[in-house]
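Entry 14. Structure prediction run on the chain below.
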Amino acid sequence: MSNDFAFTIRRIRFDEHYTPSDNTRITTNFANLARGSRRQENLRNTLEMINNRFNALAQWDNPAGDRYTVELDIISVEMNIDFDNSANALPLIEILKTTVVDRKTSERIDGIVGNNFSSYVRDYDFSVLLPGHNKGQSAFSTPDGFGDLHGKLFQCFVASSAYSDHFKKPPVICLSVSSSKVYHRTENQHPVLGVEYQQGEYSLTDEYFRKMGLKVRYFMPANSAAPLAFYFSGDLLGDYTNLELISTISTMDTFQKIYRPEIYNANSAAGKCYQPSLKHQDYSLTRIVYDREERSRLAMEQGAFAEKHFIKPYQARLMALLGQLHTQGHAS
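Output returned:
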């Protein structure tokens, strides 16, 4: 496998001094926050929200509510394809890595890798391929093989030596629940993740992540307004410590309050039967500026970029090669 793909991992600290690099996807949520005249204020307020949320959830032996701080690193993954001896690296995905700093013991504790998830190929799939497939159609559908390439690329990265050299545990991605589905509260309650919700039918995003080798469960942590969707490959409740899980909850609950305040900063919490809606009006805004319309427009532009520079030149050969690797993996 290593003769065909080489993954390069780069990391940059996400703090109040963060400036997106030239090759960062500008639709990436954290990059959007770091632009404009209020960029430093945005970043400072976001990090303060994350730390406050973390300490509220990690309240044991934490009487002043200030024992922990969360550090975030943006993990950018590039892929070199050894087809034509080309040294050009293709941007693949961007995720976040959390580190928990215990101010009482001065210990640095590994958090979870994943959290936020950004991908050029995903932009192409959802902003170019899917709308094009459904244009002029009376009923919504997905193209044959929708998400196959992206899913195989992601699994190839997670199985790579580059991943295992940098990270000890599989990724956990934490996203918003789907506004097209109805979620039902169960009796199951986890001490950190909170109350579990379930639904009868997977969303399009759930199915997309399933092709990445990830299962999904929905939990609403204490004092959250809505459940979060957690995508993982192993045992979400057994593979990760409470502090690891809290690092993801505090980070992504904060981001969702900024990006989707109609759902995650609603003034009333989800009930026993819950359908999220971005048209909901009873919500509060954070003090953090975020341009959601610009992000949607840029997603289409970057999806077109991925089509021109990645999908059209490489898709057929990539699918064939990834298919061979899949077959070899089963044979061994």
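The longest helix spans residues 292-331.
Filed with the rest of this week's runs.
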